[in-house]
Structures are given as structure tokens and as C-alpha cells.
Amino acid sequence: MPSAPVLEVGEPESTAEPSAPTELPFSVASTIHVVPAVHAVSVASTAVPTAQVAIPTEPTVRIHWVGSFVNDRHPADLYAEIVAGTTNLVIVDARYPETYVVEHLPGAISLPWREIDEATTARLSRDALYVVYCWNASCHASTKTASRLEALGFRVKELHGGLQDWKKQGYPTERA
Q1: Neighbours of 151 (CB within 10 A)
Q2: For residue 103, how far is the Cα from the chain centroid?
Q3: Which CATH number fits domain 68-168: 2.60.40.3080, 1.10.10.10, 3.40.50.2300, 3.40.250.10?
Q4: What is the largest CA-CA distance in the chain?
């Protein structure tokens, strides 16, 4: 009767580094370490099969951001510009209109990303800098709004951390 398999960790057969494929855009020697593979073997087995698994120790894909709106505006900088009365600065609330009414940044306009097109932006100045925000860093409404505005030819930046960070840092909000 065959015995039940037992999990054993095999030792690497060689300590030599794996050879680097020439098409990789990074150094294999610095980004890959060898991990012994786990094998199911019979208890009666005397020879333990082993294999080596190459696992990257750093990302192999580089993130490429498209558009200039990725350069965030920090809440302290935006607040200083509001207090100074900076001209050609438009603050855009990308959240739902119902949430804008409850609370928004001082002087902000409501412009949810689903409503952005040439008709809804026809009266907006092309010379202004638009600072877009939403709920927080994990909300993507501001990114979608910024992307659409930028595609229509507007200069756009996102507010770092959204309304949540704005309030955390003690800056004022207003109601509609």
C-alpha cells in the first residue's frame, strides 16, 4: 500500500545565480533570489526531487503615468493660494452634487467626472489652473475628472489626499 505524501523542502542543487535573459530591463543578479521548491514525495522515497523557483525581489514593471495632472497640489499650498486670492485658480469638487452641497472646499465648483464634456466646460476659462479633489487618496473621482479636463485642454492638478486630508489638517470647508 502506498504511503501518504509528505511535504519536504528540497535544498537548491546549486548555489550559482541563474543566468539572466537578455530581454529583461533589469539586472537579474540584484532582483531575483532563489527559493527552494516544496515537493510532495513518498515516505519510502530516498531521492528528494528539487527545483529552483526564481522570484523577483523588486517590481519588474515600471508605472508610467500619463498626463500632467498627476503632480499633486498639497493642501497647505492650496490653502495659501486661497488666502492670497490667487487669480486664475479654480477648485473643482469631483464628488456627487449631493455631497458638494453638504460640504466642500472654499470657493469650489461642483463638476463630477460623469458630467464633463465640451458643453459643460464651455464657460470655463482655459487660462486657469484647475485643482481637483474628491473624498480621499483612495477615491478616483478626482483622477477621472482631471483626466477628462486635461483631455479637453485644461491645466489640471489634483489635491493630495482630497477632502479628508484637507479637513485633517484643519483647513475650513463651506456648505452650499
Answers
A1: 11
A2: 25
A3: 3.40.250.10
A4: 86
In this predicted model, what pLDDT tens digit does every residue of 152-164 receive, in sequence order? 999 999 999 999 9
Strands (E), 58-128: 89-93, 109-110
Q: Which residues of 51-90 are buried (b: 16+ CB within 10 A; e: fewer)?
A: eeeeeeeeeeeeeeeeeebeebbebeebbebbeeeeeebb
Instruction: Answer whether 158's CB lies under 8 Å from 72's CB.
Output: yes
Burial class (CB in 10 A: 0-12, 13-18, 19+), 26: middle
Q: What residues does each domain of the chain span?
A: 6-56, 68-168
All 3 cell numbers of residue 59? 517590481
Per residue in 25-78, pLDDT tens?
A: 544 444 444 545 554 545 555 566 666 655 656 654 444 344 444 457 889 999
